[in-house]
Specification:
mainly beta; Porin
Length: 179
Amino acid sequence: YGLSAKQTLFFGLPYRLSPAGDNRRGNLSLLYRHTTWQIDTMKGTSRFALLGGAVVPTENERDGALQVGAVATFYRNRYEWDIDVLWQQGLGNRPNTGRYDVAWQYRLSPDRYPEWGTTSEWDIDLELGGRWIEKNTMVHQATVGLQYINRRWVAEAAFIQDLNLAEDTRLLFSVRIHF
C-alpha cells in the first residue's frame, strides 16, 4: 500500500498448496519501505530503500520476528536489477534468519511504454537467492520465472532450483494485488 512517493507498506500472508495437511498458512509479514535515495530519468530510475517490520504468527505455537533490511533497484529501458537483503530477529523460540536476493528482469512486452498512462507487461525474471536459518546451513537457489504485470495485480510462475540439492526443483505460482 503506497503511503506516499517514498513510503510503502507491504502485507504478505503465504498459503502453500502442497504438501497436503493442516499447516498450509504461513505467518503474516508486515514490512515498511522508506526510499532514501532516488534518481529518475527518461530511460529509467535508480533507488535505494530501507526496510523494517515484523512477522506476526498466525498460530499460537509460532513465535514472531522483527525484520530489517535494504533494497536497491536499477531500471533502464527494458532491464531491471533488484538487490535486497533482509534480517529477521527471532522472538521467543524462533531462530534468527537472513536472506538475500539478486534479480534481473527483462521486459518482453511492450518493447516501449506509452507516452501517457500505464499498460500491462510481460517480464522474464532470473534470480539468485539465499536463505539462512540460525544453527543451520545456507541454502542457495536459482529461479527462472515469467511475470504478467497489470495496473492492479501481478501474476507470476517460476521454477526454483535449490542449488544445495540437485533433486529439489519447485514450481511457484504467485498473485499480488496492488492497492
